[in-house]
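Need Nop domain-containing protein's 3D structure for a figure. Predict it.
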Amino acid sequence: MAGLQQSSKQVQLEDEVFLNVLKACSLVLELNEILVELSSFISVKLSKFCPNVSAIIGPLTTSQLLIATGSLRQLSLTPACNIPSLGVKDLSSTTKTNPGPIRATGYLYHCDLINFLPKEIMKQAMRIVSAKVVLAARIDLSKSSLSGEIGLSYKQEIENKIDKLLTPPDMTNDKALPIPIESKSKKRGGRRFRKMKERFQMSDLRKAQNKMEFGKEEDSIINAMGEEVGLGMSKSGSQGRLNININTNTNAKMSKSMINRLQKQKQTSANDALDTFTLSNPETEPNTSINSPATLLSIAGNKWFTGMKRLQDEDNDTNKKPKF
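Structure prediction for Nop domain-containing protein:
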């Protein structure tokens, strides 16, 4: 009526058209009554077939999930992460639509627990509900709770978790910073500290590289990484010779203890070399080969080499016999 009052042109319906509109309205009312009867019939049957699942998400959504999966056993075997995507229309359609913040707008999305929640917490609520639905389906499959008490307790847990998600975060009071401790900084001095600072100070070459002559183009080189590096005033003249004194304080140095340790190692290595190598004159040394008579006699004194001594005696006897 408000739309008719705002319109500038009012159209008066004929009797036949008005009767058709009334018939359409009566058909809509009859369809609504049929849907109410079907939902009540399904709720009565599902209260006996799967009471815990229907207690959580309602009989209508339960029937839709059972039709999508095929049976209660398949619903209990379905992973909880796949429950929200059951019944999504965009998966079967070829036209691309804007999914928005939530893509899984399936049967679980339209249940009473989730449909009226803000979209910021809708994903978390769907995860919680889908996990409890799978647990309730397994309980209904085993028929361990026919009254649906476990499903009601699960629904109460879900509502408590959703209330926690809806509550705003606690206001944290601004905490004052602690009072700074005013203490004098420790400053060292002395010869050792000065030497250490000299080793890490900027060299004259680096200082000259950071400077540029006015009105002159500086020389540059390509480093190992392929980048161009300017040399500044570190080079002068056409020949490009370095005219900066190199600071020797930045060279690598050894401590006194390291120098003493290396000297000791050299001395010990020299002593070991003298101990291992012995010099001898082969002319003055006696013949100590295995074929010499002295060596054979010393071997013959051993009880294990008596046979060799007998052979030597026989050789001597044959040498003494006269030759004809």
